[in-house]
């Protein structure tokens, strides 16, 4: 099957994204030994000033590694929740390490509260859409289907859309609206696609 220029461009961008993720992961792994160096410096210097500086450096480094991990997760998953989680860690790092006064702390706290409210809004909105039309977002995690909807779907894929895309590939098809694929006692019907990407899926138990 011949790929269109847009599809070729999307594949190239995905390859670049994964390449960037690999580079970030290597940097994170390379930075892990420094955490133990900070701990050792903190332990061997009983002076409160030196110890505080060592602990501050440790927090800076540890939180930066966490930000790197969350950045990888955000790039791979392409989900709003992960973007907000990344921003949350960045703000937390700013507050814990670089806050210079009460104004910084207040602004950071307000920002964190707004992020939590936004996350709550996204979860509620997603839940209501499911109830209205009976479909699920392709980005929903399979573990959430199991925990919240009693659908035990065992797959190496993380998301519902990833599973359906894999089933379509195994069938030699390009996903299209109206396609139905069966897996582990369930029928997965693609109800909506956006720019060639699976968006909404109806799950029916056989």
Any overview of this molecule?
This protein has 206 residues and is an alpha+beta fold. The protein is 68% helix and 12% strand. The chain has helices at residues 5-44, 48-77, 80-98, 102-133, 142-149, 160-170, and strands at 135-137, 180-183, 186-194, 197-205. A four-stranded antiparallel sheet has the order 1-4-3-2. Helix 1 (5-44) packs antiparallel against helix 2 (48-77), helix 2 packs antiparallel against helix 3 and helix 3 (80-98) runs antiparallel to helix 4 (102-133). It starts with a helix and ends with a strand. GO terms for molecular function: flavin adenine dinucleotide binding. The chain crosses the membrane at residues 12-32, 105-123. InterPro entries: FAD-bd_PCMH-like_sf (IPR036318), FAD-bd_PCMH_sub2 (IPR016169), Transptr-assoc_dom (IPR005170).
């Amino acid at each position: 099957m011949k790929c269109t220029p847009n599809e070729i461009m999307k594949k190239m961008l995905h390859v670049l994204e994964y390449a960037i993720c690999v580079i970030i992961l290597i940097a994170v792994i390379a930075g892990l030994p420094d955490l133990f160096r900070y701990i050792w410096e903190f332990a061997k210097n009983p002076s409160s000033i030196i110890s505080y500086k060592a602990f501050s450096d440790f927090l800076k480094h540890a939180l930066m590694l966490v930000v790197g991990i969350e950045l990888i997760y955000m790039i791979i998953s392409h989900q709003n929740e992960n973007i907000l989680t990344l921003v949350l860690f960045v703000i937390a790092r700013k507050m814990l390490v670089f806050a210079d006064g009460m104004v910084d702390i207040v602004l950071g706290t307000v920002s964190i509260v707004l992020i939590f409210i936004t996350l709550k809004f996204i979860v509620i909105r997603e839940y209501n859409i499911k109830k209205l039309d009976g479909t699920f977002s392709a980005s929903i995690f399979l573990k959430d289907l199991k925990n919240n909807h009693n659908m035990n779907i065992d797959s190496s894929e993380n998301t519902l859309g990833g599973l359906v895309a894999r089933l379509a590939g195994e069938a030699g098809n390009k996903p299209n609206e109206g396609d139905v694929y069966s897996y582990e006692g369930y029928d997965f019907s693609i109800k909506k696609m956006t720019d060639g990407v699976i968006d909404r899926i109806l799950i029916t138990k056989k």
